[in-house]
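Lab meeting, item 3. Inverse folding demo.
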C-alpha cells in the first residue's frame, strides 16, 4: 500500500476544521486522487504531478505557510512518490519555482515575492523549507535577468546580471546548509547553481557523493548530474556512462538496474531523444533489467509507454511486444515522438 502525498494533504486540510473557501477547493481537488491506494496501473502521471504543483502555488498565493510546512515535512519524511515513482518533494519545489515565474521582470512583483519568502521564514525560522524557498527565489531572479532563448541571443549586460545574481544565490544557499540540508533539495539546488557557475567536476562530485550518501534514494540528485555531464553542458557520452557506473555504487545492489534505467531515461529526455542507442554508451541489457525492476513497483501506463519506446529504439522486438501488450491508455505524446511512431513500433513488434 502506498500513501500518496495528495491524500495526506486532503486529510491535513480537513483535520484543521474551519476551512477557508480556498482550502475547501484544495480538498475537493485532491479528493479526485484518493487517499490510500495501491499504485494504479493507469495512474495519470501528468495530472498527479500538476496537482501538487498547482496546490503549492495556490497555498503560496494564500500565504498558508502552515499547510505548506506540513506538506513539505510529509513529503520529506515519507518519501511520497507519484504513481511512476517520482518524488512528490520534487513536484513541491517545482511548484515553488513556477510561482516565482522567471518571465516576470517587474521589480514590484519580485519585491512582493521576497516579502513572501521573508514572512515564511519569520513564521518558521527553524525549518529548512523557507530557506530553500528563498534560495529558489534568488535562483529564479538570476534566470529572469538572463531571459529565455539561446546563449548567443543573450545580451552581455544580462549575462553580467545573471552571473552576479547566481553567485549571490549560491553564496546564500551555502550558508544555509546546517539547517536546509535536512531537506535533500538543498543538495539538488546547490549543485544546479554550481553547474550554472561552471563548478569544476571534482567539487561537483564531492558534493554529489555527500548528497547521495545522505539521501541515496532521492533521484533528482542523479538526474541533475546527468545534465551536468551531458554534451550540451560540456560533457560527453563517455562522461554520462562513467557517472552512471559511479552512481550505481551508491545504492543497494537490488536498486542498481532501476537507477541505471532512470539515469538514461533522463539522458534521453534532455540530450539524446531517439538517438539514445546510437549516440550514447547505454547498456541495453542492464537498462532492460531495470525496466522490469521499475515496473515491478510502478506499473503505470506512463512508465510502460516510455519503456516501450526505449525497447523499440533498441530494436528489441520481444520486449517491445511485451510492453506494448500491457499498455491500456492511448499513446502519450510526451512518451512518443508522435502517434505514428507509436503505431509503427506496435506494428513492427507484431
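The presenter then showed the designed sequence:
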Amino acid at each position: 500500500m502506498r500513501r500518496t502525498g495528495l491524500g495526506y494533504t486532503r486529510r491535513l486540510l480537513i483535520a484543521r476544521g474551519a476551512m477557508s473557501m480556498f482550502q475547501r477547493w484544495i480538498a475537493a481537488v485532491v479528493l479526485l486522487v484518493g487517499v490510500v491506494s495501491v499504485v494504479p496501473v493507469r495512474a495519470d502521471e501528468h495530472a498527479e504531478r500538476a496537482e501538487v504543483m498547482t496546490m503549492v502555488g495556490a497555498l503560496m498565493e494564500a500565504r498558508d505557510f502552515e499547510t505548506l510546512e506540513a506538506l513539505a515535512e510529509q513529503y520529506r519524511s515519507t518519501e511520497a512518490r507519484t504513481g511512476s515513482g517520482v518524488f512528490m518533494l520534487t513536484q513541491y519545489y517545482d511548484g515553488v519555482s513556477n510561482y516565482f515565474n522567471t518571465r516576470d521582470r517587474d521589480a514590484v512583483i519580485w519585491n512582493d515575492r521576497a516579502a513572501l519568502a521573508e514572512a515564511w521564514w519569520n513564521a518558521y525560522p527553524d525549518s529548512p523549507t523557507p530557506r530553500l524557498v528563498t534560495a529558489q527565489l534568488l535562483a529564479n531572479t538570476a534566470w529572469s535577468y538572463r531571459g529565455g532563448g539561446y546563449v548567443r541571443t543573450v545580451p552581455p549586460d544580462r549575462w553580467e546580471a545573471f552571473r552576479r545574481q547566481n553567485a549571490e544565490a549560491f553564496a546564500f544557499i551555502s550558508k544555509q546548509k546546517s539547517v536546509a540540508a535536512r531537506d535533500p533539495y538543498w543538495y539538488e539546488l546547490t549543485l544546479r547553481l554550481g553547474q550554472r557557475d561552471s563548478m569544476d567536476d571534482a567539487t561537483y562530485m564531492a558534493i554529489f557523493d555527500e548528497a547521495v550518501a545522505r539521501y541515496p534514494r532521492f533521484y533528482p540528485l542523479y538526474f541533475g548530474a546527468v545534465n551536468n555531464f551531458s554534451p550540451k553542458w560540456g560533457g560527453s557520452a563517455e562522461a554520462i556512462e562513467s557517472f552512471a557506473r559511479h552512481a550505481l555504487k551508491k545504492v543497494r545492489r537490488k536498486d542498481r538496474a532501476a537507477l541505471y534505467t532512470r539515469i538514461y531515461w533522463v539522458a534521453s529526455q534532455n540530450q539524446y531523444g531517439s538517438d539514445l542507442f546510437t549516440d550514447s554508451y547505454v547498456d541495453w541489457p542492464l537498462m532492460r533489467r531495470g525496466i522490469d525492476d521499475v515496473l515491478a513497483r510502478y506499473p503505470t501506463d506512463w512508465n510502460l509507454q516510455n519503456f516501450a519506446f526505449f525497447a523499440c529504439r533498441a530494436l528489441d522486438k520481444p520486449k517491445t511486444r511485451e510492453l506494448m501488450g500491457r499498455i491500456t491508455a492511448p499513446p502519450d505524446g510526451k512518451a512518443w515522438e508522435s502517434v505514428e511512431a507509436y503505431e509503427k513500433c506496435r506494428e513492427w513488434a507484431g
